[in-house]
Amino acid sequence: SALQQPTPPAGKASSSSPSCWECNSTPKRRTKPETSREISKKRSGRWKTISRKGKKNSKKAAKHRRQRRSKKKASRALRGVRKMQRRRQRKRVSFTIDKQPLSPFFLFMAKNRPKLQRSNPQLTAVETAKTLGKMWHEQSQSDREMYREQLKGKPKFDPED
Asked: Could you identify which of 75, 76, 119, 147 might form a hypothetical disulfide with 104, taking C-beta atoms 3.0 to 4.6 angstroms apart as the criterion?
């Protein structure tokens, strides 16, 4: 008499049913290799069974993983730099806008600030501005008119120049 092949049970197997239906016993748990030597033996055995195409795909995948890791490291390092670049870009001012010429007071400040700073190097920027403001108010109208006349001769900013 011929031996009959066992047939798998109908329906889905439950978690309590044995996974090996031929021998009706629960499968043995795999034990992890304990040493690196055993691990390398196991991997080399697997590598020998893989086809050339499979090996090629595996090498490509490993190369891709390495590239992704290196990109992540680079992006982490550049994160602060990129943030600063974006911040600088936001602050940039367009120079194509027509600029108003300096006011007479600012012309006065530009002319007198270096003299005041040379004579009083201990003054802060705020104190220097306050002192120049007092000096401007002490100026006579004729002196102020001189700065206004300088202003009339200056054209507005032309972006095509």
From this structure: 147
| Residue 73 lies in domain | 36-91
Using alpha carbons, select from 117, 111, 98 the residue that is nearest to residue 147. Answer: 111
Residue type, 157: F
Alpha-carbon torsion 68, 73, 76, 81, what sign?
A: negative
φ/ψ of residue 20, rounded to 5: -100, 95
Residues 6+ apart with CB under 8 A from 148: 104
* Single-letter amino acid code for the residue at 42: K
pLDDT digits (tens, 9 = 90+) for 44-94: 888 788 888 888 888 888 888 888 877 776 666 666 777 777 777 766 666
Let me know if residue 126 belongs to a domain: yes
Return the residue matching tokens 């974006």: 86
pTM above 0.70, yes or no: no
CA 50 – CA 56 distance, rounded (Å): 10
